[in-house]
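Hey team,

Sharing the Retrovirus-related Pol polyprotein LINE-1 run so nobody has to redo it. Sequence (73 residues) first:
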Amino acid sequence: MGLDLNFKKISEDEGLRLGQPFTMEEIKTMVWSCDDSKALGRDGFNMCFFKKSWQLIRGDLLAMICRPCGQAV
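Structure output:
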């Protein structure tokens, strides 16, 4: 019994894009698209915190998000 899975393949350009570092604008768009009451994780900070303190924490947030991917900031 075989599985016939026909997943759509990404293009070479899309594959290259996956390896690119996130931009500050992409991260800001992600933060602003979330409901203020949504929490990111165990730290307990909700999205309202990130929005209100954006100017202060944006560089640290970019570094935190990019580090697990091995991306230089």
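The longest helix spans residues 54-66.

Ping me if you want the raw files.
A.
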